[in-house]
Design brief:
single chain
Length: about 90
């Protein structure tokens, strides 16, 4: 029998954070505008995007952000080691 060990992204929240910020900036959208679209506070969106805050968010929030950004959930979880977003 084959060893089917799964390869998990051990830093999935950070991957999602970077992708949210990347796609938001690609759409020339401010974090304030994103917060309006998903009906969450601006501070909450800033915390989600911050690498300094180990803040987890719900699937509902994740979904709403993907819709607001016009990207799929898959795109938000796609790991890209070349990302270097400040």
């Amino acid at each position: 029998m084959e060893n089917n060990k799964l390869n998990f992204d051990n830093d999935i929240y950070n991957t999602i954070r970077k992708n949210i910020k990347k796609y938001r900036k690609e759409k020339n959208m401010t974090s304030a505008r994103l917060s309006e679209l998903v009906d969450l506070s601006h501070d909450f969106i800033r915390q989600i995007e911050s690498e300094k805050t180990a803040y987890n968010f719900s699937v509902d929030t994740f979904y709403k952000i993907s819709v607001a950004l016009g990207v799929s959930l898959d795109q938000l979880i796609q790991k890209d080691d070349s990302q270097d977003i400040c």
